[in-house]
Predict the structure.
Amino acid sequence: SVRTTDGYVPPHAVDNQYKICDRRTRTQAVRGRIYDHSRILCLLPNGWRIKRFLSALAHQSPHHIDYQQHAVERIRQLFAQSLGYSIPQTQGDYGIARHFPRSFDEAPYMVFIHATTRADKHWSDEEWKKTAQKLTALFNLQIRLPWGNEQEKQRAEQIADGIENVRVLPKLSLSDLATQIVNAKAVISVDTGLAHLSAALDKPNITLYGPTDPKLIGTYGKNQVYLKRDKMTLIKSQDVVNLLQQIMTE
């Protein structure tokens, strides 16, 4: 809903997810004196789909933005056109890394973000384990494994089993996990929300992609490296180690 908890109805609402406004939202957006001042703005890519077409019909001020570019750039353009400002020519900066505490006396470590929702975006436990073994042998650092549910915890324990310098983290809040990421030397991740959090925190991050296309929805930010294959089973631990060696020596 575009109505805030204190009852305020803002003069503008920006829809950047192709949502079809329900009757309640549209009514709240244009009720009474707000009608002449409210605008619902939506992102309409050149490649039309029926959902987006219907979304356009529900909005008063659509903007046409090229779909064949990264999602973050599309949203930057949407907000700039909607609110009437120029987009900076530099890469977008999330500006959130400085809000998390830095630790300068902790031994160096990396974070493996191994969990994702779709089965075809998972990397095998065996390849994670091989990667952990190789990296702990090459670098004097610890590897830390976060998890969010019991299945992910079991996977983390399987990866860590028998490797001395790999630690399964306790269950953490999102803020505590962000602090872990911001203090890491680097991150290796699959295609999942925490990979995008790592990018937002400007952390060197190798993200492994199989079925999804990183050109449109990949991690966006500084120090982001994509390792893309047609299937996750085609990504091997040595591929990741080779990339990380390049990052660590730059």
